[in-house]
Design brief:
Layout (H helix, E strand, L loop, with lengths): L4 H7 L10 E3 L8 E4 L1 H5 L3 H20 L10 H21 L6 H11 L3 H9 L12 H11 L8 E7 L8
Antiparallel strand pairs: 1-3, 2-3
């Protein structure tokens, strides 16, 4: 198996690792520092490592946005960039290891190949405060989706957790 953690870590070297939880977006906790799950350091599963890249990219962007609570910050550009990096890592993992499959990541790759990743992010992850690009073709995406992904369920896996740096003891 190819282990792709080092390129992912370069995305956000400032976010150390210590939590072992994997949870969905709705389970995000408050904090000013993102801590990578222990599992990310020990499990070379290609899909997991792809989500590590996503998690690090997304959390780095949240830290750049800043504010009192970076864990709750988001933007269209952050989500889109993190999903692009998720797919880039997934593509690298698939190229390195034949037979690797993940239904969701393969479906998302098809969305990108069809040219609808922007529309996908806006459709499934949009927040009220996001500024969306003017050139989204939502109706074409919905038509494509009905034909190609009729029972699609979006996913967001965060591999790590947010906490306040002052509450985390040093090693």
């Amino acid at each position: 198996m190819r282990y792709c953690l080092l390129p992912a870590l370069s995305i956000i070297a400032a976010t150390a690792a210590c939590s072992s939880d994997i949870y969905l977006h709705e389970g995000v906790t408050d904090g000013d520092t993102f801590y990578l799950a222990e599992q990310a350091l020990s499990d070379a599963d290609p899909a997991l490592q792809s989500w590590v890249t996503y998690s690090l990219a997304r959390s780095a962007c949240q830290l750049q946005i800043g504010g009192d609570n970076p864990a709750r910050e988001s933007s269209f550009d952050c989500e889109l960039t993190a999903r692009r990096l998720l797919l880039d890592t997934w593509s690298e993992q698939k190229a390195a290891e034949t037979g690797v499959r993940n239904d969701y990541l393969d479906d998302l790759s098809a969305v990108r190949s069809a040219g609808y990743l922007d529309e996908y992010v806006a459709r499934y992850f949009k927040k009220r405060h996001w500024e969306l690009p003017q050139n989204l073709n939502s109706s074409a995406f919905r038509k494509w989706q009905r034909a190609n992904l009729p029972r699609h369920k979006p996913q967001m896996r965060i591999i790590g957790s947010w906490n306040y740096a002052k509450n985390v003891s040093s090693w």
